[in-house]
Amino acid sequence: MIVRTLQEARRTARRIVSPDGNWESTRLLLKGDGMGFSFHITTIYAGADFQMHYKNHLESVYCIDGEGEVEVVASGEKYPIQPGTLYNLDQHDKHVLRAFREMTMACVFNPPLHGNEVHNAEGAYELDAESVS
Ligand code: 9YT
Q1: Which residues form the domain of 47?
Q2: For residue 125, which of 67, 108, 110, 112 sits 20 to 30 Å off, Cα-Cα?
Q3: Considering the chain, what percentage of its residues have pLDDT values greater than 70?
Q4: If DSSP states are collapsed to H, E and C, what string results for 79-96?
């Protein structure tokens, strides 16, 4: 059994601070843990407004705290995000995320992230990355 706490994981290499200044993420489960998905607690900083396109991954995002919106780029549809909202990028949807207040999100990625991925120029994560234990 794998048991971890967010408080402990935050003090390790599992905490990634995005160089774009939009978010940080503590990756509680990674590929190396062998679960077949990764599980992250992510903070989206207040005022963040940025585009992502997870071409190589599916992602589910559950809002624990905060307020914002997600916009599907292809259609222009906007969905409000508040505590209790789950959005799912089941179509590898290119999307814009906006945080009106700081948001705390639980994120699941399939396939799992290796550990230290940050967004590339397209707003995607590469499939190959350095593993974090
Ligand atoms: C919601 C979202 O995709 N935020 C960017 C960070 C990502 N969730 C991660 O790497 O944990």
Answers
A1: 20-110
A2: 67
A3: 100
A4: EEECCCCEEECCCCCCEE
